[in-house]
Specification:
By secondary structure, this protein is α+β, with helices and mostly antiparallel strands. The protein is 36% helix and 10% strand. A three-stranded antiparallel beta sheet has the order 1-3-2. Helix 1 packs across helix 2. The radius of gyration is 28 Å and the shape is elongated.
């Protein structure tokens, strides 16, 4: 009597033998939801998309963004400490004036 495979296809291969495709469920965001998640206007979001900074996808007349792409973009925009001194040079000069170690003794 022939052996009948259990939980398998016609060839007798079990589900453990079948290659599993790595499937990542994609969560799509509208431009409004993506902009709200980032705390920016949709106009700014469209500028990021148009410059190629943030990937987006057009499905007919609708533009969608992947949640994972939005989160990755936000992380790439993280400000490194000490990188904003150019925005407040006068404050840096005041700190140096108040520092006792930088006072010239004549």
């Amino acid at each position: 009597m022939p052996e009948v495979p259990t939980e398998a296809g016609d060839d007798g291969a079990t589900s453990e033998d079948e290659p599993q495709a790595a499937y990542e469920e994609v969560i799509w965001l509208s431009t409004l939801k993506a902009a709200n998640r980032m705390g920016i206007t949709t106009r700014t979001l469209y500028r990021f998309i148009d410059r190629g900074d943030l990937p987006a996808y057009r499905f007919g007349r609708v533009i969608r963004l992947r949640l994972s792409d939005v989160d990755r973009f936000v992380e790439q925009c993280k400000v490194e400490p000490g990188s904003l001194e150019h925005l407040y040079p006068e404050a840096r000069l005041t700190e140096l004036d108040d520092d006792p170690e930088t006072v010239d003794d004549d």
